[in-house]
Amino acid sequence: MLKNLKVRDLIGKRERVYFVDAEDTTDVAALKLKNFKVRTIGVRRKGQIVGVVGQSDFSNMVVAMGRNPCELKVEDIMTTDLRTVGLDSSFYECLELMNTNNISHLIILDEDGKYYGMLSLKDLKERLVNELKYQLEITQEYAFGPHVKQIDINT
Fold it and tell me: Could you tell me the pTM of the whole model?
């Protein structure tokens, strides 16, 4: 059930946590986003999370402004107004925080306040869709019995 779902359940055991350094140039950061196959990434300075930077930052503040990505630092384009959650934050808390702030990523901090990666709206949507499919299957079985052909929920 979604009401009991915590961030730690959503992300599982993290093998790698991706980040860029605030001193990196934006071309290096953009390449890391591409190689890590992520849209937004945490920015660290001296081991501490200090911001986030995403694809829209590159398009809006580098490309659209005609700035040279080899000369511009991540700290010049990163967002510093951070929204964070803990590993025990609930699914609904995360969804509400994203909705209220019109954002698509949250910074995850562990029990010691250490950067643990990011949670995306896509992560939440995938879990919600799976839960809704499961609930529909249960409802169909209850209403029509276990041996009746189920409605195809994948179309």
Answer: 0.79
